[in-house]
Design brief:
This protein is α+β, with helices and mostly antiparallel strands. The protein is built from 19 helices and 21 strands.
């Protein structure tokens, strides 16, 4: 029986309300990110000197122009992010957060930068519970000031630029400033996202920007200018991030959050002034003869992808993509790893997450032994890795749905940049300040702080804490230590599935970058195996169902951007499910 509601305990009524709002208890409620906008095959691009792959052609062109001026990979990444803020505003921008991997080719060193948002200091574990202890409806929480965390993108980019930049900071904002003043044509994908959105869910400033005076979304091709964003970028180009975190821009962000007409939030100017991006150790695992690296916590991507790869390493996945038996093995490994992720992984500054235990060879052998090569497990639960305080990690109730973007770059010197960047759901909190949208990243926390047994949830809300993420900008290195692949994808929890698919396509099935990005999306949560629709994969779905899997055929809108470093130069592939392109010289 559940104890009475206190700051640490939740009553039965709160748990029942959560089940009604979110469905039956699930370690990983799988929620779709931005919807689809078609499937347009993209050719493999080859280049000799440098390459960018980004989610919108205007942004990719801005990054390529910076590389042609002799800029480094981080320089091009900054230019791309600022243009994406303008032309793909539903997915990322300076009002959000992200994770960066950076490969310094000369020093042969890999750095990881954490630009994840933080909760306001005043946030408590009950942030998303009402006065009766019931969880707020998810949409109401997202589309409000309550969901806004301190943005981290600018701080992370500046930290990386201070270390690896070649061109002046101010120069990198000029392409976005010019486009914001002149206007850009609304792309088909942006138009579709707006057409599918409820204009009444936007705060007034954002609604006035994205919709005409009669409330209709701007159509494809409409030239949309953003002079407010141009002024914001001019200020940041001139003065750096300081006005954003400790100046007029930051005060405007706090004011917008605290006075949100839909539901006020707790973010203050002091919260912005306290924010700092962090350089953290990347997470790397050995798979076959390759070293696969991703970001560390609070991104769960590097750990979870690494755990799945370690679990499947002894198996032969066959010569062609996704045979029935290899797909089953992969799905079971994903279920096991995701169960551990939900129970144990969160911001390591607040939670003693057992990363080394989850990747311990003996523990992995125990988990691998649970996999029946011929039959799906009936139930999957978290294991007991080494050095874990038993009873300290509750059943998780987090849901993720990211409006996100991936940037992949290799420069003239062989330096590489992989950044996954987000404002969470499509259009974030749907609140706009000075021309940019604010994130709704705090809804990546668990709405319930403890489970039905009274155990604290690792990913509960706490003041100053960073919500757990699935973002997984990745790099793969050969056995000689040379960079082989740069990749990543948007997609919420499915980022982990998309990146795994691409890694296996590249390393096991020897597909090129374009083929790997286009390959059918496939994977498993604890709820079901998910496979994209298409008659070519009907036999796989039938075989997996015969093994006991629940199989769902659903649209899976990845945005994989892959660069392969080959003896003959660079090869790039952009996901056909979005508007991304690969460009290079």
């Amino acid at each position: 029986m559940l104890p009475a509601m206190t700051r640490k305990l939740i009553p039965i009524v709160a748990m029942l309300a959560l089940l009604l709002a979110f469905g039956a208890p699930s370690l990983h409620a799988f929620e779709q990110p931005e919807g689809g906008s078609g499937f347009a095959p993209k050719p493999l691009l080859k280049a000799k000197q440098h390459m960018v792959v980004a989610a919108q052609p205007l942004a990719a062109e801005a990054g390529l122009a910076i590389l042609r001026k002799g800029g480094s990979a981080i320089d091009a990444g900054i230019a791309i992010q600022m243009v994406l803020n303008l032309v793909e505003p539903q997915s990322s921008g300076i009002g959000g957060g992200g994770f960066i991997l950076y490969w310094d080719a000369a020093a042969k060193q890999l750095a990881s930068f954490d630009g994840r948002e933080t909760a306001p200091v005043a946030a408590t574990p009950e942030l998303f519970l009402d006065a009766e202890g019931k969880p707020l409806p998810r949409d109401a929480a997202i589309e409000s000031g309550l969901s806004v965390g301190v943005p981290g993108v600018l701080s992370a980019l500046k930290l990386a630029h201070d270390k690896y930049g070649k061109l002046p900071w101010a120069e990198l904002f000029q392409p976005a400033i010019a486009l914001a003043r002149e206007g850009f044509p609304i792309s088909p994908r942006l138009a579709k996202m707006l057409a599918e959105a409820d204009r009444n869910s936007f705060a007034p400033e954002a609604r006035a920007y994205f919709f005409d005076p009669d409330g209709r979304p701007w159509p494809v091709g409409y030239k949309l200018a953003n002079p407010a964003l141009a002024e914001t970028f001019e200020t940041i180009a001139r003065d750096g991030p300081k006005p954003f975190y400790d100046g007029d821009i930051g005060r405007d962000i706090a004011n917008a959050v605290q006075n949100d007409p839909r539901k006020p939030g707790k973010l203050t100017a002091e919260d912005l002034a306290l924010y700092h991006a962090k350089e953290r150790e990347p997470v790397c695992v050995l798979y076959r003869t390759y070293r696969v690296c991703g970001p560390g916590l609070p991104s769960s991507g590097g750990v979870t992808v690494g755990q799945v790869l370690a679990l499947i390493a002894p198996y032969d996945l066959g010569p062609t993509p996704l045979g029935a038996r290899p797909a089953h093995i992969l799905a079971e490994a994903e279920r096991l790893a995701l169960a551990d992720r939900a129970r144990y992984l969160a911001d390591s500054d607040f939670v003693p997450a057992p990363v080394s235990g989850l990747l311990d060879p003996n523990y992995l052998a125990e988990r691998r032994a649970l996999i029946d090569p011929d039959r799906a497990l009936t139930n999957v639960s978290a294991g007991s890795p080494p050095n874990v305080r038993q009873g300290a990690y509750g059943l998780d109730f987090t849901r993720e749905a990211h409006g996100t973007s991936q940037i992949s770059i290799v420069d003239d010197d062989g330096n590489a940049f992989s950044m996954t960047t987000t404002i969470e759901q499509a259009f974030g909190a749907r609140s706009m300040v000075r021309g940019f949208l604010l994130n709704n990243q705090l809804t990546d926390f668990s709405f319930l702080p403890v489970d039905e047994e009274g155990r604290p949830v690792a990913n509960r809300v706490e003041g100053g804490k960073r919500p757990r993420s699935s973002m997984d900008p990745s790099m793969v290195f050969g056995e000689n230590g040379a960079l082989r692949f740069v990749l990543g994808s948007p997609g919420g929890l499915a980022i982990i599935l998309y990146d795994l698919k691409a890694i296996l396509a590249l390393l096991d099935w020897h597909l090129d970058a374009a083929q790997a990005a286009a390959l059918v999306n496939f994977g498993s949560t604890d709820e079901a195996v998910v496979i994209e629709p298409g008659p070519a994969w009907d036999p796989l779905a039938a075989s997996l169902a015969a093994m006991g899997h629940e199989v769902r055929r659903v649209s899976l809108t990845s945005g994989l951007h892959i660069i392969a470093v080959t003896p003959d130069g660079l090869e790039g592939g952009a996901d056909p499910r979005r508007e991304g392109v690969a460009l290079g010289d």
